[in-house]
Design goal:
This protein is mainly β. It has strands spanning 9-10, 13-15, 28-32, 36-41, 48-54, 57-64, 70-74, 82-90, 95-102. It has a single domain (9-102), classed as Immunoglobulin-like, CATH 2.60.40.3080.
């Protein structure tokens, strides 16, 4: 019998533009469950930097190199009941933001 996969919740993200905001070839989706944050990107040609904030303090930082289309980031160590601000920046300067309540 296979274990049931945890239910993922999508995180709405907004493209905040940047120097190359005309380049819409980078499409990102982000979701999470009780254990992990899942980041998927359509374009494998761009590296991304990701940071989770509480207020102005970055509590988790990850780098997704070019050539990688998805990344699973463990978040079980984060404090439950907090709202985390998500910021993703591409090497071209595009910026995406979102927020989620980690319970």
């Amino acid at each position: 019998m296979l274990a049931e996969e945890p239910q993922k919740t999508g995180i709405p993200i907004q493209n905040e533009g940047g120097e190359r905001s005309i380049n819409a070839s980078i499409i990102i989706s982000v979701s999470y469950d009780k254990m992990n944050l899942y980041v998927e990107k359509v374009s494998e040609n761009s590296a991304l930097s990701l940071c989770l904030y509480i207020g102005r303090i970055c509590v988790l930082e990850e780098h997704i190199p070019s050539g990688v289309s998805s990344l699973t980031i463990p978040i079980f160590q984060l404090e439950k009941g907090q709202v985390y601000q998500l910021e993703i920046i591409s090497q071209q300067g595009e910026r995406w933001t979102g927020a989620f309540l980690y319970e």
